[in-house]
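Priority: medium. Attachment 1 of 2:
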């Protein structure tokens, strides 16, 4: 799916895709649904309200197609929580993808949003990476951490203050996770076992984000 920069084209593209999803004979394999989900996810707070609404509907439809709505409770609705949505989606992604390489590929796909003209897209992409690293820090290695740092550098100098704030928070998540999962993280891991470290639903660095 190619995401257009102009709102009227994004809306038209999303509406066409939504109509396609509703067609009884249309089928997508699970991996394609997941790729589409992560592409549309960053538009649930699109700067154009109509586009954001269609994006939320598509995300809900894809979640239902994946059966990622435990107990029949919608993950997108009213009241709506971006943090909860990111928490649930990253949790299910990790359950679905046993391969860390697949999860790493999803993270790398999110890097492409750095060039988006929409601050909301860049912000949600950074939050998605933060949630993913918070839950599956082992995808971060000494071999790929430079890639994450290079991607973050663009966000740290972003002209939008909200994007810069989330980038700083994601950078802190990156440092915390790397200290735990790198080959030098044994002492940190032992300290967690001794003191007791209960993993929080959301990255603690994002606690100040109301959404």
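Attachment 2 of 2:
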């Amino acid at each position: 799916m190619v995401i257009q920069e102009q709102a009227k084209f994004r809306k038209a593209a999303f509406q066409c895709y939504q109509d396609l999803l509703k067609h009884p004979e249309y089928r997508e394999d699970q991996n394609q649904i997941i790729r589409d989900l992560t592409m549309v996810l960053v538009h649930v707070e699109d700067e154009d309200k109509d586009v954001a609404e269609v994006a939320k509907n598509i995300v809900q439809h894809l979640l239902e197609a994946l059966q990622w709505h435990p107990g029949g409770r919608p993950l997108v609705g009213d009241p709506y929580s971006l943090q909860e949505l990111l928490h649930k989606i990253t949790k299910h992604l990790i359950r679905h993808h046993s391969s860390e390489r697949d999860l790493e590929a999803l993270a790398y796909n999110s890097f492409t949003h750095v060039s988006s003209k929409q601050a909301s897209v860049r912000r949600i992409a950074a939050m998605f990476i933060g949630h993913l690293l918070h839950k599956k820090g082992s995808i971060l290695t000494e071999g790929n951490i430079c890639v994450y740092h290079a991607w973050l550098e663009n966000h740290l100098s972003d002209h939008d203050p909200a994007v810069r704030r989330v980038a700083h928070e994601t950078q802190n998540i990156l440092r915390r996770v790397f200290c735990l999962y790198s080959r030098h993280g044994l002492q940190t891991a032992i300290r967690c076992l001794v003191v007791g470290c209960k993993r929080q639903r959301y990255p603690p660095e994002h606690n100040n984000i109301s959404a």
